[in-house]
Design a protein that fits this description.
alpha/beta; TIM Barrel
């Protein structure tokens, strides 16, 4: 990998029990609960995504965290971007990262992404059955950023132009993102940091120019980077299902072709602002959803290698002079490991197995 383009894996820290999940989902719940209860939705569907090299690890164990970092480094991943959960001074799933910070181990680069959605029983951040609600204020902005200073000062923390990078998942939810950014930058400078490098995540159709809200850059959230053609839609499939000629269960979920989605992403026109690319080796959240799951089909190792290579070259050619990163988004599920040779083999609290196309496509 080039010196200018570095792969960073988003890191889901829900592979350990916490009291809140015990209360909301049942004693001992972790993301493994979802992983193991998953079942195929069509013949040839790769579910469940059971773990390979690292087994059913527990992120409370330093040995598990060290093994993750070693595996990531072996396959060219530069660092982890830990999802960070803050609710007006209350944090969730913070234990593993706190241990990483306090112990200095593993010695592996990291940054943070604030997943600033309500905590609900709907996995995509919808507002049904809110368990913990986000409430924004200037005082909370100040308290929040002060709580992160120790992390920003850590020598392992990933920086651009000597500025710690901090990602925000839904800037749309901030009442006044420019005010929030100003409060955060001022707090960082007061403790001797040069500044912060603030990155907004592009998702849910929100492609706001980050410079208009006081941020420095945006990052794609693969595979949701642009127009996508959904498979098995329309009256034809409904009629076939009614006639017993098409599996009706496929109509209850959303299926997309991996290569078409990847090519749509790579064809996007360059942004007028600084945007970091995001490549995904697959996506399948059917383990979490009985209905309306989203599954990318045919994400073979050869196609993944093509997408990763094209993304790196495109990113380097368009943005290398601006200190670019490649932020690499794996799928939601933790499980097995990508077959060797793709350059995307990493178990970082997220899965990289690949669902197959059903025989009806």
């Amino acid at each position: 990998m080039s010196d200018t383009v570095k792969a960073i894996a988003f890191y889901l820290p829900q592979f350990h029990p916490v009291p809140e999940n015990d209360a909301w989902w049942g004693k001992g719940f972790t993301e493994w609960t979802n992983v193991t209860k998953a079942r195929p939705r069509f013949p040839g569907h790769y579910q469940p995504h059971l773990p390979a090299d690292l087994g059913f690890y527990d992120l409370r164990l330093p040995e598990a965290r060290a093994a993750q970092a070693a595996l990531a480094k072996e396959y060219g991943v530069f660092g982890f971007c830990y999802y960070h959960y803050w609710f007006n001074g209350r944090r969730l799933l913070e234990g593993p990262f706190n241990e990483v910070l306090a112990s200095g181990q593993p010695d592996f680069p990291f940054c943070l992404c604030w997943a600033n959605e309500n905590w609900t029983r709907v996995w995509d951040g919808g507002n049904n059955e809110i368990l913990l609600k986000q409430q924004y204020s200037s005082d909370d902005d100040q308290a929040h950023i002060e709580s992160l200073i120790t992390a920003f000062q850590d020598e392992r923390y990933i920086r651009i132009d000597d500025k710690p990078i901090f990602l925000i998942y839904r800037t749309k939810f901030l009442p006044d993102p420019a005010r929030t950014a100003a409060i955060w930058r001022a707090a960082a400078k007061r403790v001797g940091l040069r500044d912060l490098f603030l990155i907004r995540v592009e998702n849910f159709g929100d492609f706001t120019d980050p410079t208009l809200i006081g941020f420095d850059a945006a990052v794609e959230f693969a595979p949701f980077n642009g127009p996508q053609y959904q498979l098995f839609r329309g009256r034809k499939y409904r009629y076939l299902a009614a006639a017993g000629l098409f599996p009706p269960q496929l109509l209850r979920h959303r299926f997309f072709d991996y290569q078409e989605v990847a090519q749509d992403s790579l064809r996007r026109a360059p942004a007028t602002y600084k945007r970091f690319y995001c490549a995904s080796p697959g996506w399948d959240n059917s383990a979490r959803r009985i209905e309306n799951a989203l599954v990318l089909l045919d994400s073979t190792p050869e196609k993944i290698r093509m997408v990763a290579t094209a993304s790196r070259y495109a990113h380097a050619s368009r943005a290398a002079s601006r200190g670019a990163l490649l932020l690499h988004q794996c799928v939601e599920r933790m499980g097995g490991r990508q077959p060797p040779g793709t350059g995307l083999e990493v178990e970082a609290g997220i899965s990289i197995r690949h669902p197959q196309r059903p025989p009806y496509a």
